[in-house]
């Protein structure tokens, strides 16, 4: 079993990170956040103005303030007391009506049930040891019909054996990844490399473990909704074209689609492209596949819902397998 990392360990690490993190983040040295993560996430989260929104894992409140300036009524929670202290100090300096609570997003007991219209979490959920618990608590505080938008690391870029390869001058020339399937918890150490004082400051320590492997990997390989849709769509195209496939041909067709659909997450209309590519190999006319375009936008919502449910279940199963998810006692 991987070594256990407790929430107290996570809090201690982020308390140690807090001073340098807050200083460099506010001076805009988190290049990836500024130029890639935040622009994409803000577009993905949509218009949250006039809504009650929870920022789960708010840190020192940088993104919480962005949402507040865009009109959302924000509450931020974070496990690190030092981060919350920085966030509250900034709220005093620039009042935006934000409420900050020092709490784990896996235990939101201080927040009422069904009290938020939306929950956001930017690059934080992979830093907590109890992802299923976080999902339960987020579901509890969300109102019916509320939305959850979160971003987390992909395991391709967060493994125990990752690191930059540098030339003789110290310039990073390539990124290497190793131990991809190693599920042991570890402390990742890194810093904002573009900051002018990067060589003088201590590296951040960030705990990593199983959920940062299960969830993102699932979105590449465990696409339940997309696979079911492709099987139904393929057989529809076969029938629409007036073709007859034997049971053996149907099995080969569905197995081919299941294999070729891996890695299509996040690519708009990728299922149609996959189906078109495979259809040609089975002499299915292109016109029969293109008939599906009329309903593909509606079917996409169903595919996405099934993909999300499948991956949440995968995270819970692996967490139980690793002994991180304990069954709740049955009360009378």
Protein traits:
332 residues; alpha/beta; Rossmann fold; 3 domains; two-stranded antiparallel ribbon; 15% strand; globular
Task: Give a brief outline of the structure.
By secondary structure, this protein is of the alpha/beta class. The protein is built from eleven helices and nine strands.
Question: Your description of this structure?
Answer:
- This protein is α/β, with parallel strands linked by helices and 332 residues long.
- α7 packs across α8 and α7 crosses α9.
- The strands form three sheets. Strands 3-2-1-4-5 form a five-stranded parallel sheet. A two-stranded antiparallel sheet has the order 6-7.
- It has three domains: 149 residues, Vaccinia Virus protein VP39 (Rossmann fold), CATH 3.40.50; 62 residues, no CATH class; 98 residues.
- It is built from eleven helices and nine strands.
- It is globular and about 70 Å long.
Question: Oligomeric state of the chains?
Answer: single chain
| CATH H-level homologous superfamily name of the largest domain | Vaccinia Virus protein VP39
Q: Major β-sheet, in short?
A: 5 strands, parallel
CATH class of the largest domain: Alpha Beta
In the sheet with the most strands, the strands line up as: 3-2-1-4-5
Poorly predicted sequence stretches spanning 5 or more consecutive residues: none
Mean pLDDT rating: 81
Can you tell me the CATH architecture of the largest domain?
3-Layer(aba) Sandwich
Furnish the topology, listing elements before pairings:
Elements: H1 7-26, H2 31-45, E1 52-56, H3 62-69, E2 73-78, H4 81-93, E3 99-102, E4 116-122, H5 131-141, E5 142-151, E6 163-166, E7 172-176, E8 186-190, E9 204-208, H6 211-221, H7 224-240, H8 247-260, H9 270-281, H10 286-290, H11 293-321
Parallel strand pairs: 1-2, 1-4, 2-3, 4-5
Antiparallel strand pairs: 6-7, 8-9
Helix pairs in contact: 1-4, 6-11, 7-8, 7-9, 7-11
């Amino acid at each position: 079993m991987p070594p256990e990392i407790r929430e107290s360990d996570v809090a201690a690490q982020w308390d140690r990170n807090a001073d340098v993190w807050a200083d460099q983040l506010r001076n805009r040295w988190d290049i990836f956040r500024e130029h890639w993560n935040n622009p994409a996430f803000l577009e993905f989260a949509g218009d949250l103005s006039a809504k009650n929104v929870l920022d789960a894992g708010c840190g020192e409140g940088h993104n919480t303030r962005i949402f507040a300036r865009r009109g959302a009524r924000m509450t931020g929670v974070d496990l690190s007391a030092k981060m919350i202290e920085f966030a509250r100090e900034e709220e005093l300096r620039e009042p935006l009506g934000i409420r900050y609570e020092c709490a784990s997003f896996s235990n939101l007991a201080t927040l009422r049930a069904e009290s938020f219209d939306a929950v956001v979490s930017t690059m934080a959920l992979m830093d907590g040891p109890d992802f299923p618990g976080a999902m339960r608590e987020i579901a509890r505080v969300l109102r019916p019909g509320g939305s959850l938008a979160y971003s987390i690391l992909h395991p391709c870029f967060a493994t125990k054996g990752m690191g930059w390869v540098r030339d003789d001058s110290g310039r990073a020339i390539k990124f290497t990844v190793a131990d991809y399937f190693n599920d042991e918890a570890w402390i990742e150490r890194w810093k904002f490399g573009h900051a002018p004082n990067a060589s003088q400051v201590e590296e951040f320590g960030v705990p990593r473990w199983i959920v940062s492997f299960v969830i993102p990997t699932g979105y590449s390989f465990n696409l339940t909704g997309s696979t079911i849709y492709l099987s139904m769509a393929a057989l529809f195209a076969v029938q629409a074209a007036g073709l007859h496939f034997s049971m053996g041909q149907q099995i080969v067709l569905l197995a081919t689609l299941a294999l070729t659909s891996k890695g299509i997450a996040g690519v708009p209309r990728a299922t149609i492209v996959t189906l078109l590519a495979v259809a040609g190999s089975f002499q299915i006319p292109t016109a029969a596949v293109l008939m599906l375009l009329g309903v593909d936008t509606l079917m996409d919502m169903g595919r996405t819902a099934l993909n999300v449910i499948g991956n949440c279940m995968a995270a819970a199963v692996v967490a139980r397998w690793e002994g991180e998810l304990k069954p709740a006692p049955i009360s009378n």
